[in-house]
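Entry for zinc ion complex. Fields follow.
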Amino acid sequence: MKRNPSTTIFTRLLLGAGLCFGAVQAHAQTPEFTRQDTLRGSITPERAWWDLTYYHLDVEVNPTDSAIWGTNTIQYKVLEPHQRMQIDLQPPMRIQKVVQNGKDLQFEQDGNAWFVQLGEQQEPDSVNSVEVHYGGKPQVSENPPWSGGLTWRYDSNGRPFVANSNQGDGASLWWPAKDHMYDEPDSMLISVKVPKGLTDVSNGRLRKVEQHADGTSTFHWFVSNPINNYGVNVNIADYVHFSEKYQGEKGELDLDYYVLRGNLAKAKKQFKDVPRMLEAFEHWFGPYPFYEDSYKLVEAPYLGMEHQSSITYGNNFQNGYLGRDLSGTGWGDKFDYIIIHESGHEWFANNITYQDYADMWIHESFTTYSENLFLDYHYGKEAAAAYVIGQRDLIQNDRPIIGAYGVNQTGSGDMYPKGANMLHTLRQIVNDDEKWRGILRGLNKEFYHQTVTTAQVENYLSKQTGRDLRPFFDQYLRDVRIPEFQYRMEGNKLMYRWNNSVADFNMPVNVHVNGKAQWLEPTTNWQELKGAPKKAKLEVDRNFYVTAAKATS
Ligand SMILES: [Zn+2]
């Protein structure tokens, strides 16, 4: 997802850009969780017994009355015998019937969750399916992509321009799904029937287009890799298409672009950032994770979203974030923020996916950090460092980056700029850029096409760096204090320690003593800086996200 404007800084930034904010403040309030939050956010017994293998979402999208009707065939493997299945679909959408092996099944609704009673014994290891018939007028997004729902607009020629966006709010806003991130189908077919003259672009590759006698057509898109539920998308418009091929690490990658008819010339110029993005990210993170499904950039009626293999784009064909450099350094004007950021999510969000919404930093911290690696690749290390350090002005330290588990609750918007600075700090600790690159590529290999927890990522990074990083992550992900490098004179001795930190914080740090760089291993206990000159001037390397202060006593 893109930066969430629920934090005031982004609200300010975006208000400046003329966007409006209706429903974003709710996130900032003290959360009180309900049974519905638990049904949505936890792996309930009615979810745990079955493993998703395949979806066929087959829908008709009708811009005339803002309705969606169709079926979702859910194929699953039985892990344990159980006959009650949870399917999620949020009102006002409703399930009409559920069919298994030709028989209608009983089901009951509990808010956004629907419990289906399966008629037949579910044998472990067997693969079965249910066909869910549903429809209605899904929630309309008040502020896409930050508030979930459908967006029904028209282009300048009066043709419909329709898209969904629903990270956080959930795929179940518009189609019946197992709406928890831990489980993904191995593949998916998305069939979308649209009015005459319009094109649907969804995820994966276009398998075929069926023309119907009444002038409507059905587009069949097949995704041959696991896909997270919020990544599934429909984009319906009078699109024009152009394409190119990219010679990447895994061979030839198809790049397909879909934009509104009037924007072809602008897009052909602006989308030159796509091969530049792939070159930088394949270098840092390894091969693009979905060669089989191609890479697409699709114009949408909102700013942007990381829909897997069909990144949506609405940045007005200009550099920066709606024309602005979020770092305030000038480096953010060198690239199209939406192309770089949303595509970075193909590695961190679509390849490596959080299991619980509380761990959204795995998507946003690495992806915001990826913006600086794009600069590093094309403009050098100094430019990259200036950019990520420049983003510190956006950090609020209002609440921890990790949210509450099991209730579909995300943490602070600091997961963007602070998370990026945490990773930039970790790169300093590793102090070996090739090793660091190997670790980032290793993450994408180790967790290839998987859903993960924070613990898995932390453990991997600890193992690969050869350091116990638990206090480091406790500090930056679970605490709001900025650690302070504190020093003082004790007689003739120069003493130092970490202050304003978690109890066992022990991060090594690069300090300039009278201009000379020196590595120290501070803990929260005072230590003597051996051999320090009498009138020492201390400065902490600015690449570390910490503060420094001389203690008065
Ligand atoms: Zn993002």
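NOTE: Confidence is low (pLDDT under 50) at residues 1-28.
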